[in-house]
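Narrative summary of target 7.
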Amino acid sequence: MQQTPIRFLLYCHDTYGLGHLRRTLSLATHFTSVLPQAEVLLVTGSPLAHNFAFPPRVDYVKLPAVTKLNSGDYAARSLAMEFSAVRDLRAAILRETALAYKPDVFLVDHAPQGMKGEAMPALVALRTMVPHCLRVLGLRDIVDDAARVRVNWMREGIYHTLEHAYDLLLVYGAQQFYDLAEEYVLPTSVAQRIRYCGYLNRVENHIAPCGQEYRAYKAWQGQEQLVVVTAGGGGDGFPLLSTYLTGLQQMEHIPFKSLLITGPLMSAEEQQHLRSQLSALPAERVRIETFVSESVALFQNADLVIAMAGYNTVVELLALRQRMLLIPRINPRWEQFERATRLAQHGLAHMLHPHELTPGYLLEHVMHGLREPRPSSAQFVEAGITFTGQQMALQYMLRDLYDLRSRLTSTETCMPSAAISAL
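Modeled conformation, tokenized:
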């Protein structure tokens, strides 16, 4: 007898950077690898979704892209449409996709209401028209500065949304490291639905085997120390990389090699400026790449990684027990600053405030970081950090989906057999 497939609908708004899509795709990959009959439909606004490799039984629907302006407002990225119109179009696509797909689980990444409320029509429609669907919100370890979150969530009605629109809240982090319910003063009824899953495992399937690209970089490095500087997606990474190159130019002797990864979202003009700075440095001491496919393997092999403090990059570096120097983004959110600060307090990272980012001070921190030991197991235990995020997220969702189906009396809304066998 053929098992009924279990359908996951995953939504990530992705207006800036690549973090939401990378996090969502890692979950989709785990779901389909663990559940033979599972399938995932991903709805994303990322303009770079087509550059990612999608595993079997995972497909995606592309929303019209938007971008976040320096003012904090949004605008259509490519289309000549008012933002309100493109937002309504995205909301309609998401709602109609949800109703046509009839998922067993609808997992929203990070934004409880979606971008400017665009997920609400889908959440309401699923509640009324697909009652067997489990509605889940997935949150990274830290959303933003706690005081700011409380004010924004009260003003935007997020507390009401959490109370009435979601069956389950997953946190991809450790309660011991950051108690989201306490920091954001969640009502008891909402806090009872929170499950802390541990950090997502961003490393397990990425280290070995190492391909031609990695071997080429390893041969270039030789026996020398290597510093990797990464700007994530790269949309706002230019100041960090430019300051680093200026610092190298001021050194009489550079005792290590450096690999700078700009990210695909850095503008062509900024990348060209960095390459002009590179021309003033000793040949073969520094390399600049826009994108590196085997970044995790390179992170593992580095002696120090300099980065912002985005969730995905930090989780990868933590899992690798890597030395890291974090220069967190502080606009438009303080989430990275809060994460970097707490990691530094636990001795798991060094942090340099972006207001202190000068060439000399940055390179002083680099030399110090290269002499420091890697994080210890005791430090991870003290911070409560584990890497069970995908595993526990799936387990919690299947359990709550089973409970939801058990409460429904109609035989037409029974639990998919594939999910039952996975419990």
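The two ends are 19 Å apart (CA to CA).
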